[in-house]
Design goal:
The protein has 21 helices and 6 strands. By secondary structure, it is mainly α. α12 runs parallel beside α15, α16 runs antiparallel to α17 and α17 packs parallel to α19. The chain is elongated, with a radius of gyration of 42 Å. It is found in: Cell membrane; Endomembrane system.
Length: 593
């Protein structure tokens, strides 16, 4: 400050003439009118305004004498008397810089009321408008503003809110996407950009050993306690990421039922049932719709999440389900109603067997090469799907009148089924005990010999001894699994239940074919009994699947089996134990509810 002034304030017990340094005196702003404080009922007196206006007009006229060329006054040249509650017959003067108004609110009024050509000091206009504005103070309102046109989502910050943790599994998440973005002029981000504390990186495909080290269970779909998922476990993933290739098991179950009811309607050994072909037509149409729907959904997954499909193909268990779509199509060919087509074209058989042959060359070559995917290491019940495709193809081809092609696939399937059957029976030390809810997968043991007996009977022309040997093997395996009732108590619903349907239905069809060659009351009773069990199982399972899919909406949980890391955990942070503790607590809460 340029000058020192006395501040005379009447206080009890303190002399009016007592002087204190201005920097050490604490005075509340509300006690001094006009000092950056606005209150209703306190304003600037009209005499003070008149004096300030007169002083301003006089000083402006002689601006060249006391101010600059524009008539601006020095900072210490403006003196305004202030009328406040503390002023008792005494006018206090304060030196106020010309660049600071008495109140920010008054400065706002100044900008509104003054014209573009008017020149007035902020202090004076603040004083003139204070009495008007302070009578009815208005509250400022903040309203959301739209994003200006031409401003990108990236510039506005909206794109940064997108969860990028799923990007590594998308089809265009790699180098090709960055090249396309560069051509469109979109600025590129670093691969290690953080998103909510998670670093987004393109995780390489894990080796086969990692699937066994990180996952557990016969389907290898449960993350071990010591492992951490590359995708968020506390968030529901996109539907396509949660849709597994094993969903084609539903197509196998419904398609095999269409074949069963066609056999019941056309076989003379069970003609006493008088089954109509209408049932076969309805089930075939349902199977056609189901195959089309599941295929369309998984085709979308291939288009948008190809990296996830690659992980499923490299999975020791999921890789076998890539045979299921083609087997389901072969079921449609075999179960076609006579009213739709009497005999499907043979070109269709070659078109469906070509991808099966390509998959077999890949899978069987890995079994035989002795590498990371040798059979002794990756053997599991789902490997039967890669074997059954040979027998189903042989049966369909022989039904169309083909000869050499069906025999070729039958021979290939028989050789590899023998090796697989012995390997699975050995129960190597690397195999783990199967959880209770996934024991139905063992019914896949029944599928291969059942279909093989029918395939050889169709190729040979009648149910000879070779067909009967395969059928009796399937019969023994069926009874050995069915009597173990304790394994199927207290099961919770899972897609693995569809493993019941296809093998049991195939065995029922084989029983009907056997009763056609050996017709008696016993074989006819077996045909009816096994067919009833198969139909009831499929019906109950189909209803349960619909309820869990559309009512409970828990049919497709997060597919942890494709979200493992390329390497094992290196940190000692207790992330996995916390996961197990949380799951335990959730189980307790469920029991309490």
């Amino acid at each position: 400050m340029h000058t020192k002034e006395r501040l005379l304030i009447p206080m009890e017990g303190v002399s009016r003439e007592e002087a204190l340094p201005c920097l050490l005196k604490c005075v509340a702003s509300k006690e001094v009118a006009g000092f950056d404080s606005i209150e209703c009922g306190t304003g600037v007196s009209s005499q003070a305004q008149l004096a300030a206006a007169t002083n301003w007009q006089g000083e402006t006229a002689g601006g060249k004498e006391h101010g600059d060329a524009y008539g601006h006054l020095p900072a210490d040249a403006i003196s305004i008397p202030v009328n406040s509650a503390l002023q008792h017959d005494t006018n206090l003067s304060y030196s106020i810089p010309k660049s600071l108004p008495a109140s920010p609110y008054g400065f706002h009024v100044l900008q509104i009321e003054s014209g573009p050509n008017e020149m007035a000091p902020p202090v004076l206009q603040s004083a003139n408008s204070a009495a008007v504005e302070l009578e009815q103070p208005k509250q400022a309102k903040l309203r959301s503003q739209p994003i200006p046109l031409g401003k990108s989502r990236r510039d506005s910050g909206i794109d940064n809110q997108r969860d990028k943790r799923f990007d590594p599994f998308k089809t265009w998440s790699g180098r090709f996407e960055r090249q396309l973005s560069s051509l469109r002029g979109i600025p590129q981000e670093h691969d290690g950009e953080a998103n909510d504390g998670c670093i987004v990186e393109v995780e390489p495909l894990p080796a086969v050993d990692r699937y066994f080290d990180a996952l557990e269970g016969p389907e290898l779909d449960t993350l071990r306690v010591s492992e951490v998922s590359v995708l968020p476990e506390d968030k529901k993933w996109p539907f396509l990421l949660r849709f597994p290739i094993s969903a084609f098991g539903m197509c196998l179950g419904v398609g095999s039922q269409a074949i069963l009811w066609k056999t019941l309607a056309t076989s003379p050994s069970v003609g006493f049932l008088h089954v109509s072909l209408t049932v076969n037509l309805v089930l075939w149409c349902m199977s056609l719709v189901l195959v089309s729907t599941v295929s369309l959904i998984y085709a979308c997954k291939i288009i948008f999440y190809f990296e996830a499909v690659r992980r499923e193909y490299d999975h020791p268990v999921r890789g076998n389900f890539f045979f299921a779509p083609w087997i389901a199509c072969l079921f449609l060919v075999q179960g076609v109603p006579p009213s739709v087509a009497e005999k499907p074209p043979t070109a269709l058989w070659y078109a469906l067997m070509a991808p099966i042959f390509c998959l077999e060359v890949k899978v069987y070559g890995q079994w035989m090469s002795g590498g990371q995917r040798r059979l002794s290491k990756v053997a599991n019940p789902s490997n039967h799907l890669s074997i059954v495709g040979n027998f189903v193809g042989a049966l369909a081809g022989a039904s169309m009148g083909l000869r050499e092609g069906p025999i070729f696939f039958f021979a290939v399937g028989l050789a590899h089924y023998t090796v697989l059957f012995v390997t699975l029976y050995q129960r190597l030390p690397t195999n783990v005990t199967l959880p209770k809810e996934l024991h139905p997968v063992f019914f896949l043991f029944v599928a291969a010999p059942s279909v093989a007996s029918m395939a050889w009977a169709t190729i040979n022309g009648y149910f000879d001894y070779g067909s009967r040997i395969a059928y009796f093997v399937a019969l023994f395996l069926y009874f050995s699994l069915a009597v173990r009732i304790n394994l199927f108590r207290g099961l919770r619903f899972s897609l693995a239940w569809w493993a019941y349907t296809f093998p049991t239905t195939g065995f029922s069809i084989a029983t009907i074919r056997y009763s056609k060659e050996v017709t008696n009351a016993f074989t006819q009773a077996l045909s009816v009994g096994f067919s009833a069990i198969s139909t009831f199982t499929v019906t109950a399972l189909l209803v349960s699947t619909i309820v869990h899919a559309f009512v409970l909406r828990d049919l497709f949980p997060n597919d942890i089996s494709i979200a493992i890391t390329r390497k094992g955990p290196t940190s000692s942070k207790p992330v996995a134990p916390l996961r197990s503790i949380n799951s335990t607590m959730k189980g307790r809460e469920t029991l309490e509810i």
